[in-house]
């Protein structure tokens, strides 16, 4: 009887290649120019993940390259197919056929160690480097690696809330709503319930094609089930497998073999591609009369006794405007300190802020007080040297605290924020500035005192609730009565007094973005930029 069952199971497995799984499709062969092949974005424009687990066919391509170019490393890179014997006697044929037989070419690679997976990533990096060069890609530098546990979990959720336990909505491993024909179908390849799993309606014996089942919100297949996936932490996996029940496939559950980085028949991997830098750089603007007309707003008289005509920047000084200054003044003292982003984000891509044209219209940060003053001096000389200028002589500088507050209020002395009232949201609940709100969920009472209680006293965990985790373009949100943008939030603005900034930043809470508040700084940082003040000296 057991022998009969054995042959029935093998027959069903070999014929399962004819099964049409939902959304199944062949591995892509044609790659469009300047496109990263076979990946989906999971974080911004800098972190991409393979849409499937690495397949047997993909790994054989790697082995063929090793055999030709690095024969000494070939044997050490082979999968340990004998690991199939650690599951059941039914798996004996897979020792010979799973990795080699063409029928399994689009099935996930298994039986490799975490170290072997890492070596594949290194090889893929070199291959993609050649591909990007041939296709004139704007990608300058990047890394291919295993995802961290946190990155894997973000990818698995596919944009769903952090409380999500599977890569789909709901807590069930089977389909429970929708069309009758789909009800009770498995959403993943896992070990079905019951003593005899082969009596369940599940059709998968072991693994299944990497494009089986339904992709999640990011377009990633089999983030739960099929094969457990190596992550970057030593001996760690995520995602469950064909050999484990649905609980082990939950996003919030640790890997079954955590602590062991050796090969197994139910462990494979997928990689991430992290973009480090891009090739094209900021383009300086043309400095002519239209430049000044476009960027400056005339102010009502601040002091009627002095009768001085003043203008102020409608926005914070942008990266592209500062790049225009650097063309002639690219000294070490004036350069942007890009590396400061590393204290806030683990990804090098953020250091492209201030370098790449994608950030043209974002406010410049990471410059010193002296660099901001040098910009004002240069702009003064540039304007006064123009043949077609409106005023004979002007002076650009940083505003005083009094001037900054006056222009932020739009000439109204009673405003708490540039938009008037004491609230940071409009009637629809939308935030009116880019800042780090104090969330109601952390507001509590102790005795007679009310305060905000954040985990580890870290207010910055709320900086993304307004929809932005870094500065936004200089003309975001609504301008004040004088037509000035982002006087509260986005980036704190230097004033004439060194070490003092006004208006708060994307990293400041409700109080520090109020007009009367100020913050301090001692060196270039990611939170602080500046806005111009221009006074007419001679008409």
Question: In terms of topology, how is this protein built?
Answer:
Layout: H1 2-15, E1 39-43, E2 47-50, H2 56-69, H3 71-77, H4 92-97, H5 114-134, E3 139-145, H6 149-157, E4 228-230, E5 237-238, E6 267-268, E7 272-278, H7 289-295, E8 296-298, E9 310-313, H8 319-329, H9 369-384, E10 393-397, H10 401-408, E11 443-446, E12 449-452, E13 492-494, E14 500-502, E15 518-520, E16 528-529, E17 533-538
Parallel strand pairs: 4-6, 13-16
Antiparallel strand pairs: 1-2, 2-7, 3-7, 4-5, 8-9, 9-17, 10-17, 11-12, 13-14, 14-15
Helix pairs in contact: 2-3
What does this structure look like?
- This protein is of the alpha+beta class.
- It has two domains: 2-24 and 37-277, paralog of FGE (formylglycine-generating enzyme); 280-538, paralog of FGE (formylglycine-generating enzyme) (Alpha-Beta Complex), CATH 3.90.1580.
- The protein has helices at 2-15, 56-69, 71-77, 92-97, 114-134, 149-157, 289-295, 319-329, 369-384, 401-408, and strands spanning 39-43, 47-50, 139-145, 228-230, 237-238, 267-268, 272-278, 296-298, 310-313, 393-397, 443-446, 449-452, 492-494, 500-502, 518-520, 528-529, 533-538.
- The strands form five sheets. It has a four-stranded antiparallel β-sheet with strand order 1-2-7-3. The protein has a four-stranded antiparallel β-sheet with strand order 8-9-17-10.
- Helix 2 (56-69) packs antiparallel against helix 3 (71-77).
- The longest helix has 21 residues, at 114-134.
- The model is unreliable at 1-34 and 195-199 (pLDDT under 50).
């Amino acid at each position: 009887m057991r022998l009969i069952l054995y042959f029935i199971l093998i027959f069903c497995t070999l014929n399962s290649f004819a099964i049409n799984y939902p959304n199944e499709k062949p591995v892509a062969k044609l790659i469009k120019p300047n496109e990263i092949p076979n990946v989906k974005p999971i974080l911004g424009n800098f972190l991409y993940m393979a849409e499937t687990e690495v397949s047997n066919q993909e790994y054989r391509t790697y082995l063929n390259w090793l055999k030709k170019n690095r024969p000494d490393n070939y044997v050490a890179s082979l999968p340990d197919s004998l690991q199939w014997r650690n599951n059941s006697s039914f798996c004996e044929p897979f020792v010979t056929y799973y990795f080699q037989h063409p029928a399994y070419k689009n099935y996930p690679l298994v039986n490799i160690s975490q170290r072997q997976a890492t070596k594949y990533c290194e090889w893929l990096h070199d291959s993609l480097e050649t591909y990007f060069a041939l296709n004139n890609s704007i990608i300058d530098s990047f890394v291919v690696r295993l995802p961290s546990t946190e990155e894997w979990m973000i990818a698995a959720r596919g944009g769903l809330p952090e409380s999500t336990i599977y890569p789909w909505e709901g807590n069930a491993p089977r389909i429970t709503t929708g069309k009758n024909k789909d009800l009770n179908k498995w959403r993943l390849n896992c070990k079905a319930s019951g003593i005899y799993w082969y009596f369940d309606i599940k059709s998968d014996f072991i693994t299944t094609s990497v494009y089986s089942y339904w992709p999640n919100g990011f377009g990633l297949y089999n983030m739960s089930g099929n094969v457990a996936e190596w992550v970057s932490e030593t001996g760690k996996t995520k995602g469950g497998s064909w050999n484990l029940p649905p609980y082990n496939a939950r996003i919030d559950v640790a890997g079954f073999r955590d602590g062991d980085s050796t090969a197994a028949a139910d462990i494979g991997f997928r990689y991430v591609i992290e973009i480090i830098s891009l090739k094209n750089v900021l383009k300086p603007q043309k400095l002519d009369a239209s430049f000044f007309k476009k960027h400056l707003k005339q102010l009502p008289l601040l002091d009627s006794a002095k009768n001085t005509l003043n203008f102020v920047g409608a926005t914070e000084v942008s990266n592209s405007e500062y790049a225009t200054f650097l063309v002639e003044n690219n000294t070490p003292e004036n350069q942007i300190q890009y590396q400061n982003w590393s204290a806030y984000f683990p990804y090098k891509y953020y250091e492209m802020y201030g370098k790449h044209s994608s950030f043209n219209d974002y406010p410049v940060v990471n410059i010193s007080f002296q660099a901001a003053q040098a910009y004002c001096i240069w702009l003064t000389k540039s304007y006064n040297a123009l043949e077609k200028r409106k005023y004979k002589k002007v002076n650009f500088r940083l505003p005083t605290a009094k001037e900054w507050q006056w222009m932020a209020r739009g000439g109204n002395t009673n405003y708490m924020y540039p938009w008037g009232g004491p609230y940071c949201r409009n009637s629809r609940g939308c935030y009116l500035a880019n800042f780090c709100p104090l969330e109601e969920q952390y507001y509590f009472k102790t005795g007679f005192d009310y305060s905000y209680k954040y985990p580890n006293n870290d207010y910055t965990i709320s900086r993304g609730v307004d929809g932005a985790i870094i500065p936004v373009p200089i003309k975001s949100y609504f301008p004040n009565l004088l037509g000035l943008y982002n006087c509260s939030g986005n980036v704190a603005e230097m004033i004439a007094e060194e070490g003092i900034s006004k208006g708060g930043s994307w990293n400041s809470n409700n109080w520090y973005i109020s007009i009367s508040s100020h913050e301090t700084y001692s060196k270039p940082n990611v939170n602080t930029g500046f806005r111009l003040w221009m006074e007419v000296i001679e008409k």
